């Protein structure tokens, strides 16, 4: 089928991280819908809850210890069309900015780390704060923590970048991110406190990730290392090691981590200029340097 070929092609490309994240969420959502319908018509609806326990992350630690993989799978699992549509639209809009300015690897790193930090906020709050003890055991699903991390990361990197919103007009993304965080804080005492706490954890990760990146430290290196390891296993390609007997003199290396080429200080200046005056204020040479820095 052409759909299967399209999916295979999307996952075979190494420069397609945003579409791959979107596709994973959609495929899991579609598979669960089909499974739920099949189980319903076959009179075995109860099995669906058993399946969901393999994806949703529980808030009580004993259950989590039995299903440790859910600390990540929950961030690719949705129930309800509005839930997934809202998350994927935001992932697409803000993910495009992260991919354009920082590259695919940074986008995936922010998504994964946002999901993990959101999970930690959710777990700590439900297990340590008495106000949530009555709800202990309630699971969490959805990419909201990861998507919130990407929203805040984009707003931290490009605070004055403007989106044209329907019925509103041009709005700087720093204000969009601020509204997202405030809504999450306001929702803690509502019907979905776990989800809102996870959002706040993701938002914090997005902010810290960009600040550390601008300081020359890439918090996503462990995620990228694991991704490379898994990719090598799947492709069957061994890691190659190259040694040189002698090396010619070369310019001092950029600081490890963060944005490594061109020089870190030069990239920081370009990002500061974007924050002050917008992407359109960059010269052609500056745009090329920023593009080269994102190709990692």
UniProtKB/TrEMBL annotation:
GO biological process terms, semicolon-separated: proteolysis
UniProt subcellular location: Membrane
Transmembrane portions of the chain: 21-51, 71-95, 107-128, 140-161, 173-191
Keywords, sorted A to Z: Hydrolase, Membrane, Protease, Transmembrane, Transmembrane helix
Domain DUF6576 span(s) in chain numbering: 263-296
Primary subcellular site in the record, as a coarse category: membrane
SUPFAM superfamilies to which the protein is assigned, alphabetical: Rhomboid-like (SSF144091)
Gene Ontology CC terms: membrane
Membrane topology: Multi-pass membrane protein
Segments forming domain Peptidase S54 rhomboid: 67-210
Span list, region Disordered: 241-261
Sample GO molecular function, one term: serine-type endopeptidase activity
Family that this chain belongs to: Belongs to the peptidase S54 family.
Record protein name field: Rhomboid family intramembrane serine protease
Organism name: Hymenobacter elongatus
